[in-house]
Structures are given as C-alpha cells and as structure tokens.
Task: inverse folding
C-alpha cells in the first residue's frame, strides 16, 4: 500500500498550462501536473530540460512563467539546494532558525538530522554531508507542507549520499510533506521516490509509479525494470561505453 494513503485525495500542487521561455527558447511547454499531498516525486531529465526551472516555478521564485502555475499549493514551502547555502558568519543553530523563532524547535530539528551538539559550530567546520543535514534541519523547522529539493546530494560522495537518502526518507515519513526532488541520478530517483517524472522537450514525457516497498536497495533486482524504462526514456543503455 502506498504511504500516506489518507492524504492522497487532495492535491498539494496543481499546475495547468505552465510555460517558460528564455530568449525565445521554450523550456517548459504547457506543463500540466498534480502532486497529491504527502507524495514523494522525483523529476528526471537531460541537462537543460527544465527541471530546476519547474522547481523554481513551483516554489514561486520565477515570476516570468505563463499559465496558471501553482493554481493550488501549500502555504508552507521549503527549498533545499545542491549548495547548503548556510551563511558563513552565522553559527549552525542561527542558520537553522534564520527568519523564524523558537530555539528549542531548532535544536530539535538539528538532533533529528544527527547534528545534536553542533549547534554552535560555524558552517566552515562542517563536512559537506553535515552542511546538507543542517540545510534539511532549516527546512524542517518551518514545518513545510511541500519540500522542494534541487539535486541536494549531487556534490556529496557516494557513501554520504546513501546515508542522506536514508535520512531524507526517514524525515519524509516522520513529517509527511509532499516532496519534489530534482535529480539527474536514475538510481536515486527509484530508491527514494514513489513516482518518477521525466521532462522531455518541455513536457512530462513519462510518469512512472515505483511500486516497491521501502526501504529499497540499489541492489534490488526488482528495481531493474524501472531503471531500464527510465534509462531508455533518457536515451541511455546500460551497456553503452
């Protein structure tokens, strides 16, 4: 059974006819998309396909889109980027609480992501994985109904990335926001998400449900069929040199 079934009757995000062009080049071409509340969605596509552009539109950060865009969307939205974007002149706890109040809530969020005891550290003292944990804590303290993540693990080493995958799933299960994760990594998409979208020529060319229970393993042979479908949609074969 899909997680958060009771929530999936109402949309968290509804997009109709979303279009975005840059200097005459159409990147998003009349996108229609519904994301039910509590659903974990991954967004794949070639470089330049418009993945981050779509995420920015959903976040309300791009005011040059046309169409109805976020016709419906939650009020509380948090964004996590590939760069943790911690302010180097503020300590970790101050970064987490930026623009909010409630020190205890910030400490609880840091403990939840495994950074208890690092509240007074400077961002420059954190590893890449720790910085991304702090960025997740900063998003959690805002209690988002929708979490938007733009390749948040792309700069991490392989082992740290796997640990962060497990952490993100745990946080999603505990807090139950809708998640839209932009990634270029097919394996990351099928291990984390319950639905994978593929952007192609400005439109959603593939909408694939990953019908496997969690936790999932990269070594799970039953994920192979999903991997092959997604790679084929990207025009990639696994035996390509």
Result:
């Amino acid at each position: 059974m899909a997680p958060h079934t009771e929530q999936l009757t109402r949309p968290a995000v509804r997009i109709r006819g979303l279009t975005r062009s840059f200097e005459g080049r159409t990147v998003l071409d009349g996108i229609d998309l519904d994301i039910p509340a509590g659903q974990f969605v991954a967004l794949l596509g070639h470089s330049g396909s418009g993945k981050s552009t779509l995420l920015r539109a959903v976040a309300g950060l791009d005011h040059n889109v046309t169409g109805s865009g976020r016709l419906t969307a939650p009020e509380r939205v948090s964004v996590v980027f590939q760069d943790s974007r911690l302010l180097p002149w503020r300590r970790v706890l101050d970064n987490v609480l930026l623009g909010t109040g409630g020190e205890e809530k910030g400490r609880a969020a840091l403990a939840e992501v495994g950074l208890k005891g690092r509240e007074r550290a400077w961002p420059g003292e954190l590893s890449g994985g720790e910085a991304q944990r702090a960025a997740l804590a900063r998003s959690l303290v805002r209690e988002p109904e929708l979490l938007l993540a733009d390749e948040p693990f792309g700069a991490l080493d392989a082992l740290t990335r796997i640990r962060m995958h497990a952490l993100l799933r745990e946080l999603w299960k505990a807090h139950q926001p809708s998640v839209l994760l932009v990634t270029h990594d097919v394996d990351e998409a099928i291990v984390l998400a319950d639905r994978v979208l593929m952007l192609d020529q400005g439109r959603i060319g593939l909408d694939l449900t990953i019908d496997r229970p969690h936790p999932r393993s990269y070594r799970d042979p039953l994920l192979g069929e999903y991997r092959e479908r997604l790679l084929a949609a990207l025009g990639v074969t696994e035996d390509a040199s």
